[in-house]
Amino acid sequence: MINRELLSKLTSKATPYYFYDTELLRKTIQEIKTESNKYGYQVHYALKANTHDGVVKEIVAAGFGADCVSGNEVSYAHSMGIPSERIAFAGVGKTDHEILTALRVGIFSFNCESIPEIEVINDLAAQEGVVAPIAIRINPDVDPKTHEYITTGLKDNKFGINHWDFDVVAERLKSLDNIELTGIHFHVGSQIMDMTVFEQLSLKINKIAAWFKENDFHLHHINVGGGLGINYEAPVEAPVADFKGYFKAFHDHIHLEEGQELHFELGRSVVAQCGHLISKVLYVKQGLETQFMILDAGMTELIRPALYGAHHDISVLTSDLSREKYDVVGPVCESSDVFAKGVMLPKSKRGDIVAIHSSGAYGQTMASSYNMRDLVKGYTTEEL
Ligand code: LLP
To answer: What is the pTM of this model?
Structure first.
């Protein structure tokens, strides 16, 4: 929670910036370790959610692996000290350069999304004189019941290989000498709050894994991706996601072979609640019927509300006056540059400091410099 000492530090920094609460991050990491260790599960952190060094250091110290989606993320994970045998590399469009980077790092697994991609990895691995460990990403056609832009596991999505292609894929895999199938990979979507989605996924996986067994493939691991949602509506009351229910949903429904590992790729649930976008009120402007609170942060710093209509709770840290109705907006020249419409907030004036909560995941990593704005910075509690 924000005490006087922290508030004075937060208000003395140039805005806008991200503040990452290290204490909450550590508490969250500890909860993940406790709950996943119960079943011996392996956790990779999905770097795309947040790559602030101070945040990543905490995650590396916890011993998690990394889930990467670009060659740069693979190099970064490696440079931050994540062991190469704990780095997975996913994505539908890996370039030759990125594949070579990952081959040279010697990663745990290429999560592959198509036959042409597998063929290219095989050729490049042959050129490097190595055998590449691959997992095929399978589209299980499970509805994650989340926003359509972050739904990935339906049969019409661009991700993964569909079950009707298995025979062709199996045949091709057996004919390639420089790849080895070590696992199967899934990820059906993000911000999933309904645990029955993970139960359904587990049941589908059981059937798919049985098919691979019948076809003489020994799968060293099953990777179920990420997707666990967080409570954007109540960040104070529910700062830590339901890791207990999440891992248990898999434990109760998935069937693993003797010695087979279960891997996870968690992003949002690790870092979302520890992050706050801190901004300053530039102007309060009275419109025809609306009172606008114009901030010095906008969609360039946090694009989720503009892109997905996402809700983020907002607090005014420097006012406790009676509440008024505001549209909270940014300075960017786009009508979608709105954080919230018609929210009740303490009466504010120019210079007040505002925190936009639950923004530790897909906040700073999705920032841009549109309008030639400065790229937003981030600070952990220790770095403030
Ligand atoms: N694994 C794969 C293959 C993924 O595509 C993703 C996220 C993850 C793991 C991590 O999922 P998480 O645990 O964070 O749900 N920008 C969007 C979210 C995009 C998620 C993309 N994939 C947002 O701000 O809501």
So the answer is: 0.97
